[in-house]
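Please produce the structure of this protein holding NDP.
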Amino acid sequence: MTKVNEYLKKIQSKVAAKDDGQPEYLQAIDEFLPTIEPFLEKNPDIVASNVLEELLEPERIVQFRVPWQDDQGNWQVNRGFRVQYNSALGPYKGGLRFHPTVNQSVMKFLAFEQIFKNCLTGLPIGGGKGGSDFDPKEKSDEEIMRFCQSFMMELQRHIGADMDIPAGDIGVGGREIGYLFGMYKKLNGYQAGVLTGKPLAYWGSQARTEATGYGLVYFVEHLLQDKKTSLTGKKIQVSGSGNVAIYAMEKCQQLGAKVYTCSDSSGYIYDENGIDVKWVKEIKEVRRARISTYVDKYPKAKYVSGQSVWTIKADFDIALPCATQNEISAELAEILVANGVKVVAEGANMPSSLAAVKVFEENDLYYCPGKAANAGGVAVSALEMAQNSQRAQWSFEQVDEELNKIMKNIYETCRDTAYDYGIPMNILAGANIASFEKVARAMISQGLV
Ligand code: NDP
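Below is the modeled complex.
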């Protein structure tokens, strides 16, 4: 065992002891630490500074009570969080998630990944994440509004356009951002730059809604171009049917690929004729209904209730998991390999378990981790902040072009860094090393305060 290896093991066991009972967080750390070993071997000053241990401790975690009244007049209470993980590169930035599975472990893993993702965009933003265990499903608009207002009554004291800028994530889209923004404005006055993902009418950015899904597909297209191929004619499997999934499917189709599947937490759709994305948008964005209703218009498509979309055995070239963490186990990863999948690019955060990633690596798939492949959303959020500061709104084409450039740059940074460390096409290691170096050196230069 080398000295660096020993150092990493020591840090890993310290975190495991301190954060016992936070499995998602520990998973993110366990995935991260081994990948930066080659970098630490070549940079003893970073080991000597012990900046890594400092980096693994969030700067601040806020937990708060969110009381709200349901339509029957009963008072309900949920738990709210904001993890302000690292501000070495700029104000904390990261989405808000409203989902019953939200807890401190989930918030911390998401905020941790966000540090490196934000760094890879090349834009001046630190890493954070927040949310609540509130379940927006089957709530009325009024209940969602009252919840968002109560959530913001507390959150507002911890955020600010130059301090911490939340955005959307699972369960938080334009509607919720609107209610949150309205309450912030009532309490503090109009400050456009305090939230991103705002509707276009009040200082939102063109292409923000599309950004994560489009960015994911741009990332894959740059990888494929490097391998002298393209998306044209490729068979794609997508999970989820929310914001990321919808716009990933749309861009795949625009670039000539065929998407066969999508899903929600109740089941999946397999449409041999290709998914009708406009219909999925209608179901999810307008009707706010379940994906099972897809077959109302396309009775020949298959809806399978209660099963993962990754259990399908059929020919696919590319898998785009766009639902949630740990949706792909090792067993499901084996199915993807047997299906002929060559590229797995994560629209969701940490959708592949550690064991699944191992399966991808052992079978030489191109594995594109979420922190690199889904960075398009936060990149356009940062562009929204820039537009808000300029009091300007750029055109869709301008933002989209910038997004594509950023995704190309992220892909090339990951590829080139991996190459420099003798692990070609290990995009995960490339992403972790490139972003860790930048954040660690910024922390050291700021005096490790
Ligand atoms: P949405 O709420 O719009 O959609 C989430 C989708 O995933 C829905 O189809 C939902 O189904 C499904 N889903 C959620 N939880 C589960 C579960 N436990 N099992 C199966 N399916 C589930 O969220 P987004 O599309 O915004 O986010 C999806 C992923 O992408 C998340 O991991 C998020 O962190 C990540 N991401 C999002 C970004 C963004 O800009 N929005 C940016 C970067 C990453 P159901 O409706 O049944 O819950």
